[in-house]
Amino acid sequence: MLALSKKKLNDFLTALKRAEPQRQIIVPVEERGATKYFYFPSALPLFFGHLPYYSAKKFFLPPRESLFRFRMEKGKYSATEETVQCNQLIFGIRHCDVQALKILDKFFADEPTDSYWDRRKNTPLIALNCVNPAPACFCDGMGTRHSKGADVELTDAGEYWTVEPKTRKGKKIVSEAAAALHEVKKPKPLEEKPCEVTATKRKADSVTEKEAFWKEISDGCLNCTACNIVCPTCTCFDVEDETDLQGNEGSRYRVWTSCTLDDYSRVAGNYVFRKEEHAKSLIRVQHKLNWFKQKFGEHSCTGCGRCSLHCPTKVATADVARKWLQ
Ligand code: SF4
Ligand code: SF4
Fold it and tell me: How far apart are CA 254 and CA 237, in angstroms?
C-alpha cells in the first residue's frame, strides 16, 4: 500500500503545486490558536490536530459573489453572466466536510447548475480520517465519520498516512506526487477515538415541536448568526444589487444569510412572516435534524459540532442534538 511520511508532506504538496502551478492547494493551517483551510504555501503552520474551526464551504460557495453584471444602454438592460475559473485542490479535508459538500450538491448541483458546481467539479478532495474528534463533534452518531466521496483517502498511521486513490482524478493526483510516497506492507492505523457526544440520528425524527421547548432555546439565542456562518451545510443566501449612482450599471450578488435574522423572512410589503423567536429556532434546528431528510433523504447536519463551538449561549443545533438525541 502507498504511504506518505509526515516528514515528506511538504515535498508531496510542493510536487502537486509543480505539476500544475496554476492550481491552488488548500490545506488546514493554524492561526492564533484557530484552525482553518488556507492556501499552500503560506507562513502559517499546517495543522491536522482536529477539525478546522471554519469549514471549506467558502471555497465552493463564497460568502459574497457576483452572479452577473448588468448595464443599461439606450433604455434597455443587458446582463453578462460571471464566469468561474477554478483550479483548486483540498488536502486534509475531513470526511464529515466531504459529506457536507455532498449535502450542498443536493441543493446547488441540480439543474440549472451555477458557479458552485463549476468549483465543485474542479476541486479534487484528499480526505483525512479523524482520530481525535473535538469535544462538540457527534459525527459518529450522524454516520458521517467515514463518509465516502473524496478522490484520495488518507489514514493516519502515526509517522505516516496510508494513501488510497478512490477515483480517476485521485489516481492522477497520486501519480503527480509519487516521488514523495513510499510502500508499506502492513500498515497499523491509529485507533480512532469515539466522539464524546453520543447524539444519534436515529432519534432525530423525534425532536419535539412543542412550543415551550423552542421558547427555551430561543430565549438564549442572540441572533448573532455565528452558527449559520460556520455551518458547512447552510445554503441560504440573499440577493443584493449594487449599482452606480445613476442605476445604469452594476452587479447582482449572492450573499450568505441566516434564518435567525428578521430580514430572512421579510417579503414584499415589508412583511416579516417569521417574527417569533421560537419559530426561528425551530426552523434553524429542525431543518438540519429532520426536515432536509424528509425532502432529500439525508440529514443536513454532519455532526461537525462547529455551531456549538461558536455559539456564545450554547443553543445551537449541536447543543439541541446533545440535549435531545442522546
Ligand atoms: S448544524 Fe452544527 S453540527 Fe450540524 S453540520 Fe451545521 S455546524 Fe455542524
Ligand atoms: S444559536 Fe447561538 S450562534 Fe446561532 S444565532 Fe443563536 S446565539 Fe448565535
Answer: 6
- Pairing verdict, β 152-156 and 160-165: antiparallel
Residue type, position 307, single letter: C
User: What is the SS3 assignment for 134-184?
Assistant: CCCCCHHHHCCCCCCCCCEEEEECCCEEEEEECCHHHHHHHHHCHHHCEEC
Residue 260 CA to ligand 2 center (angstroms) comes to 8
Q: Which residues contact 295 (CB under 8 A, 6 or more apart)?
A: none
Q: How many CB atoms lie within 10 A of CB 16?
A: 21
Is 231 a pocket residue for ligand 1 (Cβ < 6 Å)? yes
Ligand 2 centre and the CA of 227: distance in Å?
A: 5
Q: Which ligand is nearest to the CA of 233?
A: 1
What pTM, to 2 d.p., does this model score? 0.94
Q: Please tell me the number of the ligand nearest to residue 307's CA.
A: 1
pLDDT digits (tens, 9 = 90+) for 275-291: 899 999 999 999 998 88
Q: Is 303 left (phi over 0), alpha (psi -120 to 50) or beta?
A: left
Mean per-residue pLDDT, 108-135: 92
